[in-house]
## 1
Amino acid sequence: MSLIFEELDYQQTPLGEISLRRRAEPRLDGEILYEVKLGDEFLMSSLFTEAEIQLARLGLAALAGADFDVVVGGLGLGYTAVAALENPSVSSLSVIDIMQPVIDWHRKGLVPLGKQLVSDPRCTLIHADFFELAASSGGSFDPDNPRKRVHAILLDIDHSPSHWLNPGNKSFYTRQGLENLANKLLPGGIFGLWSNDPPETEFTDLLNSVFNFSESHIVRFSNPYTRGESSNTVYLARRK
């Protein structure tokens, strides 16, 4: 096995030190994995991506019509964004990430899906704070088009609605925060949220107080480390 471990990038960000590494996993017959760490905390791995993919597939499947304009909050390793672009009804995709290094990894081809994302003319990578844009009083994520609303907003940044990557994100998971977000959706539009934790009744009740309809999907996937099954949650809510 020639490749055991390689750190591809290491940068300072507003949230701390972020690093991208590539390594061979001997427990998986040398399978090459890409991993992202923020400080000492693991953020994501190319081994566990099923729920990120399902965030896009379930969210867009809940829409009617065609020519969808979609916003993804959180770029990561790109799995949600690529899954969204696989849907032929998506006409535009804006991916918002607060970490410039993460955007650079994709533009430089340091991660497996980077070239696929940046070469798709429907996709725009935006360096910005998703939560700051979501909290704005305007009806759009696009400062050049303040009246533009979108068909779907898919969010994968925090660990869960009650476990935040940044304590400042807490205000998003409130009635006011979600109402600000809902105002950026077209009527019938979908808000989708990835969570590492099981469904939380308190958050589901909050979604139901703001949106016309909500549901939670438990996404199960194989875990080769435990030789069992793990799961994440995808919340979906439809604008009134």
## 2
Amino acid sequence: MASSKTKGGAGNKLGLWLAIALVVILLDQFTKVLILGNFQLGDSRFVTSFFNVVRVHNTGAAFSFLAGAGGWQRWFFVGLGALATLFIVVMLRKHGQQTLFATALSLILGGAIGNVVDRLLHGYVVDFIQVHWAGWYFPSFNIADSAITVGAALLIWDEIRRVRRG
């Protein structure tokens, strides 16, 4: 019988990590459907003194990087997302017993796929969360972006813990 520290144990957890990614994808897509159904492009609704719900279309990447590139970036980011998906699934199969690492990868995977779905369906990513303070506005983002950011922070935390132990 394989222990949870073996490759077999990691493979047995792959379903859990993929389920976490699926939850992120579903939550991301559900919220985007709500925004698309209830907001016109450019609409904004005040929620608190530092938070609005908006409808923004991002044809680029983070912070609208390459947004005005002429259209080729859509397929570039779809391809990049597909490659990232393959790489992350391989890493989850190989290191699935490392809970923090695998959780981080699962969040990144779900977020990446959520945004790829947007690019395939619409040609752009639907962003709707707007944070602001004293006239300064952070670029709008979505649930997928949030999952990717939390996943990246967890990867950094995991690496710091690993270095401190070693």
## 3
Amino acid sequence: MIWKPHVTVAAVIERDGHFLLVEEETPNGLAFNQPAGHLEEGEDFITAVKREVLEETAWKFEPEYFIGVYLWRKNPESTTYLRLCFGGTVFDHNPEQALDEGIVQAHWLTRAEIAKQPTRSPLIINCIDDYLSGKRYPLSVLQSFLDFHGDSQVSS
């Protein structure tokens, strides 16, 4: 069997000291998470995070910077996740849009309120704390070469 981590994207979205999170159904009951999900076949990172935020919150998301890469596994028998976290802003909310399966609703919560909630993983607080500490990297640090048909040297 070939081991491979599950690649996910997530968004830290802050407005007036409140962060956009989703309340979702998990195998362990309801928990909070950033708008996040799996990278799909043929999808680049930016497209994936925009899609996930829209599907889970009904907000359009514009990534403005990259916050970090996080590798997490709950225990040796668990799935390993490789999370790419983005920061940016939301606009054009559609309250009539149905949310992704398993999403109960979206919430705007402070860091202190989030710390009191059951969360899907420790990455939620880690990503928010990295955002609050000022970690910001240009989106240009991420490059996609999907279906690239050039010579053997790839340049930026």
## 4
Amino acid sequence: MPSFKETYDNIKADITKGEKNFNVECTMLKDGMQVEIKMGAKPHLVVIDAPPGLDGADMGPSPLLAILGSIGACIIAVTKFWAKIMDVQIDEMKVFSRGHINLGAIFGLDENMLPGYDKVEPVIRIKSPAPEEKINELMEKVFTHCPVITNFGGASAIKPSFKYRKSE
């Protein structure tokens, strides 16, 4: 398995070496609102659920919590990448992702409301011996290169399709 530096240098030498396709399989489970997600070649298994008030059994995070977790995890991962690229030491880092939503919009109770987060506010806390100006420069790179922030901001169209098969 190549190191980060080897991966970075290979892609820097030939940008096409950075092209990847990722696939995730989500399967509805019989209990409540549970969904099993298979990710990666290993595969990594995650169960997504809902709280009891939304017909779930609370056996895993909701899809909405998973979004907030993905935002925080991606900010941390991209910060670690850029810290290596910029030679910045990060001693501690936490991201507290906050999101606001009105569930009534999901239920179609008010068609004027956004059926998703209307506000997402990740709060990042970093401890580092680097000067604040260097951390500000680092975080500007992170905010402009984090794929989850980019995608969540609407840069990539989501084009759902479906195939129907009648049950017997």
